[in-house]
Every structure is written in structure tokens, then in C-alpha cells.
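In keeping with the milestone schedule agreed at the kick-off meeting, the structural modelling team has produced records for the first pair of proteins. Each record is given below as a sequence line and a C-alpha cell line. The laboratory manager (R.T.) confirmed that both were archived under the project's standard naming scheme.
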Amino acid sequence: MLISVNRRPLLQCYLLAQNSYTNIRTLSSTVQQSQHQKSDEQSSTNDGDDNWFNVESGADIDERVVPKPISYRPDHLPQLRKRQKQKPWWKFRYFVDINSLPSEQAEYTEKPEYPPIYEPTSDGKRKQIRLDWYQAIRRLPTAEQKIYEITKHYGHLSLMIDPVMSTYNGLPTQQSITRTHLINELPESYRSNDNLTNVDNIEHLRQQILSIIAA
């Protein structure tokens, strides 16, 4: 009995088997070649690094692939390196913010409160500043504080008054400053004996004065 067989799938299976056999045979050789290449590359890089840092080994500095940057700062001193810029996420807080809660205020008041009405002109602004100053003076408790508030913005010259002024005809000015007046005689209270109550002390002083005059 004859059975018809399709030869095409059989040929495909045979070719795949042959290719897999050849791949398995060549796998070991390819692995060995890659290992040799890696070892050669590592040795070349190590030699390059040694030549980079060791100038005395004979490698020329100008022949390096990446030229070393020229700097006057020694590489072995870390404190002389350039300062690194602060990153934006490096944030240091040396204090704590404590904000008190706002005081509760009544939403409605018994009497209506309206904002003050000001004149928008320059004269109105100056007038309002003056009125605010008047209100500040009225709030001060004592008269001395009010006078100081009024006069503290002005400079006051100090004047030393001598018993006899050096300027010509300066007596009227001195009398006006000191609010005084002069007379050509002694006061009448010096002549009366009404204020002399202790006569014993007067006699004692009289004897001392007479003894001083006689000496």
C-alpha cells in the first residue's frame, strides 16, 4: 500500500536540526572570544588610568584623549574646591512661626459704624493729617505731654545768660527773657523789723560783726 507524503515539512525540520547543531558547536568558541575581548578592554582601560594619574610612567600629557582641566588649586585639598551651589530643596528652618488666632469680633454692632469720609484732594489730605494730629494731642493725659508733642518737632536754641551781658545795651533783652525788672533802691522789706522774730540771734551776729570790724 502506497502512502503519499508531503516532503516539504520534512525538509524544513531537517534544516532546522542541522542549524541548531551547528549553533551548539560554535557557542563555546564565541563565548571564549567575548571573554578574551573583555579582558583586553579592561587591561587597556587600567593602563590608561594608570597613565593618567602617573605622569612619570612615560605617557605624554598632551596625548591624552580627554585633557585634564588646568587649575591652580591642588586636587588633594578638599577645602579649596569650588563651593557647590545650594539645591532648591535644601531648606533649613531655624525658627518656628507661631501665629495667634484672630480675636472673635461681633458681626453686628448696636450702633452703625461708617468709614470716615476724606476729601480726595491734596488740601483735604493735608487737612486730615492735621486733624489726626489734633486728635492724638487730645488723647494725651497731661498738659506736659501735650506741650512736648506740640513742640518736639521744632528745634529750640539754648542760651546761656550771664549776670552781666557782654553785648552793648543787652539789659532790656535780659529782662525780657527772665521776666524781671530792676530798681535803684533796696526793697522796703529790708528796712522793716517786722520779720525779725529771733532777737537773740541778731545780737549774736551783731557782736561777731563788731569784733570783725574792730580787728
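The second protein of the pair:
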Amino acid sequence: MLSRQLLPDGHHVREGAERAMLQSELRKQESLERVSRTRSSMSATHSAANLSPTAAAADFLLKSGRHRSVQPAALDATLGESTAQKLLAALDGNMGILKGRSARFEQEPLDGPVTHESLFAPPGDVFNRSFKRNLFKKKKKKAPPPPAEEVARSSSPEGGMGRHRTDSVVSLSGTGGKVKAIGGPGVPREKDPFRAWKLEVMDVNKMTMKEIKSRSFEGIKEMQADIKRDNRRFRNLWLREMDEDLLYEDRTLYTPHGMLATEVAERKYDAWKRKAYKPNDYTVQKKEAQKKLFSYYGVPMSSSEPDLKAWGRVLRESHARTPAERERVRREQEAQRRKEEEARRREQEEQRAALAQAAGGVTEKLADQKRRSSAVVQM
């Protein structure tokens, strides 16, 4: 044992290994004793029943069902061909042996070659496994033929031209990724966008020359050679023919380095201008007065000098706050109020006149009815 050679006495790993070995030895002894008791009881039973060795072997195989120590060749050598054939015929149906198999265990195309495992019932349903396998194969159901009307409509030129093209929609949820058709016969199905896109992309008639060339390795190599040739022409010919001032402007305005350099230069120029042109006291006072004026009239003022739009808003606000403008606005509001009151009064008078006219008609009808009733009473 490796732990005894490497570890000293009293080590916990060595003690655990020795304890495990002792337990395994005890389990082996218990299993050997159990097997010996079983064999002795079986031999005693067979001797008491006065069974022959063949009958005892058959009885033991039928009871155990899956005995792995029995070999077909050993049965032939021990019991003989006729006895082994009778034994296997007696075991037919109980241990998974197919009917009609000879004692030589020739291979059948339906069930494969004969092995030691095929002599006994496999795990599971023994009765179900005892039959031939081809009897339990599920037959595929054939799809029903289309109706005659649909076939006639599709075969006719009018029906064939009028039918819409139907596509299948792949459903990955609930169908295991199988293709599932949507819609019944004669109903136009939804067009699969992915299939339509693929057909559109793979259409050679709609491809450009570069796309057609890129479909083959020779075309890709040719395109790479054209790009390299254009690069050489640009560097050696076209770039040298351009004006230096134009190249400088393009480099400054359109390249990343040029745009960054322009931004840095503008920031530095603004800082230098603020430092070089410091405002005097008059400019500072003027700036403060402008801020107060704009805040008084509620007009926002930018950090730089105010523009004409801001000054126009200040002018309109200041004009609206003059006494003359306020008086004009008050008079306009008073005239508008009088017009509204006059219109309201006329509307009320018209309503009263309509009500009086309706009431007068009712009173005349009542007086007429009263005169008629009095005349009837006098008569």
C-alpha cells in the first residue's frame, strides 16, 4: 500500500486508507458468505427434488433471468446439441430469445448478430422486448392527397397565374425548430423577410461588378491588385499634381490631426485675446449697465455682446411700459368691453321679445277658450 510506504505511523491519511481497506475486506467476506449460502441452498433444493442437471440449469436460468456466467458454447459442450436446443426452446419468450433461431445461433438480418447479451431479457419491459423489433416500428403517416378542385385550379392557366406564392415560416418555439406552414389552401401566406432578403442579395442580375468579382478567389485577387495600383497612382502621380495650398487646406480642415490643431489654436487665440485686450473701467461699467437693463425688462443676455434681436425685445418691453402706451391699451380694452356688453344686452332683449310673443299667443288662446265656454253655458 502506497500510504504505508510514504506516510509515517499515526498520520490521519494513512489511518483513513487502512480503515477503508479493512471495510472493503469485510464487505468481500460478507458477499462470499452470501454466495456460498445461496449455492448450498440451491444444491440442496435440487438434490431434494431429484432434478437432473439439465432441469436444474433450466430452473436456475428461469428464476434468475439474467445469468451472465452461462455461455452458449458451454451449453453445447456440457449438455449436447439436442439438450441445449431443447433448453433454449424452453427458455424462449422468457429470456428474450427469438423464435425460429437454430442452436448454431445464425445471424438474422432483422435482429443483428447473436451475442451473449441477446440470449437474455434486456432491462425494461421483458414481454415487449421478447418480440421482433420490426413489429413495433412506428409507420409514418402519409399526407392526404389534395382535393381535386385544388389540383384543377393549380393546373389551369388562370388558376396558376392567379395563385400567390406561398412561403413557409420557421417557428422555433413549440415545434422544435421545424418548418410550420401558416394558412390553409388558397390563402396567401406571409412572405418570409429573411428568405426574400437572401434571394435579393443572391440575385446576380442585381449585383454590381465588384460584388460579382468578389464571388470567386480570382476576382478578389484582381480587386486587390486594382486597389494597390490605384494607391500607387495616387501617391506617385495625382498627389504630386495637386496644388500645395489646396493640400494644406485639406490637411488642416479634414484630417483628424488638422482639426485638433485648429481647435487648439482657436482656444489659445481666445485666451491670448482676453489677456492682451483687458477691458478698462468704462467698458466694465457699460457691461454692468447692460446687465441691469436686460434683467429689469426680463430679457436674457448672452455672455458676449447682445445682438439686434435682444435689443429689439428690450425696446418693445420699454415701449409697452410707457404711460402713453398703457393709456392706449386701457382705452382699447374699455372699447372692447363696451362692445361685448352691448352685444350681450341685444341678445337678452331678443330673447325677452321671443318669450313675450310666445306668452301672448298662449293668453289669446286661453281667452278664446273662456269666451266659448261662457257662450255654451248661456245657451
